[in-house]
Amino acid sequence: MAAREELIQALRARYGRAARAEKSKILNEIEKLTGFHRKHAIRLMSTDPEKKTKATRSGRRVYDEAVRDVLVILWETTDRLCGKRLKAAIPHLVESMERHGHLEMDEVVREKLLRISPATIDRVLGPTRTEGGSSKRRRRGAPNSVRRKVPVRTFADWHDPPPGFFEADFVAHCGGSMAGKFVHSFVLTDIASGWTGCVALVVREQSLVTRGLDVFSKLLPVPILGFDTDNDGAFLNQTVIDYCSDKGIEFTRSRPYRKNDQAWIEQKNGAVVRQLVGYGRLEGLAAAYALTRLFKVAHAYVNFFLPSFKLKEKKREGAKVMKRYFPPATPCDRLLANPHVNAETKDSLREQRLTLDPVKLLHELRSAQAEVADISGLAPPTSESER
Hints:
Helices cover 51% and strands 13% of the residues. The protein is of the alpha/beta class and 387 residues long. The strands form two sheets. A five-stranded mixed β-sheet has the order 3-2-1-4-5, sandwiched between helices. It has a two-stranded antiparallel ribbon with strand order 6-7. Strand 6 (308-317) and strand 7 form a beta hairpin.
């Protein structure tokens, strides 16, 4: 390598003064002597490393330590969101934290925070981030006579519905073993807004599903217009069918073994329930009560302060799948922007958001997580970035 470098240094000056034909001869000579690719030889002959100076960016630093410190506080308050989701959360988050006395900043820092880009957020938080799975037994499905009463709805059949059409699923807190009885999370997510609600059930049972729907009807900001589930027998039964018929709820189901038909709720199972609760085993009333307290805090924290992505378009070209997303937004913001939501509901959401303190909610969330972890016998689940 030293001999090659000496050869390049000796020929570089002659190459710079040579005509086109002479340059070609020099390159042929270099190829034979060194084995370099011709394009690599051209780059070596055209660039003098001794004259190359590194560009400096002195004086161009826009986001100083003051902005970084506030950004770290906001990042921790939102349970360490990614840059794109944190960008969407900053306006409401700053307003709420200043109102409750958790933040004090001058106008310059506030203006910088409001105009900072998601990519810059990830770059500024980079150093802070650096510092900082058994087989399952198959359940019996619903009888064919019951399945025929519930129409199938696939992922492609939603066609941008108004708020009120929910996908539902169970999350089993079994700790890796399906033996015995254990607590389940009954989870609903709204297709239009991403609003997610969870109810803890002591066991997975059809009568508790209808009671859970009664709880959801009081908990959710919009009425339940549609109820889409998988083929679990606790969902597909005459009790739930009669309940939905009496309440005027459109009851549909996914195709068997096609989990992507319920992509919306499957995403929330991991991003909300598993991230908050983890994978430990929860049994009995004490565990169900602890999980209920956790979900009560998480309901406000997740739906009012944590922006999420929503798929806008999905195209396939051969083997390549291209996805486009709407800008990140909280479920509350999506409901406020939706023309199908009435003014009374929107006013109620705005009033409720003004009373919520994100820092207090996060502290209550951590306390509830610790209680659930003590019952399950596992350490509290870490945040997304820590995993």
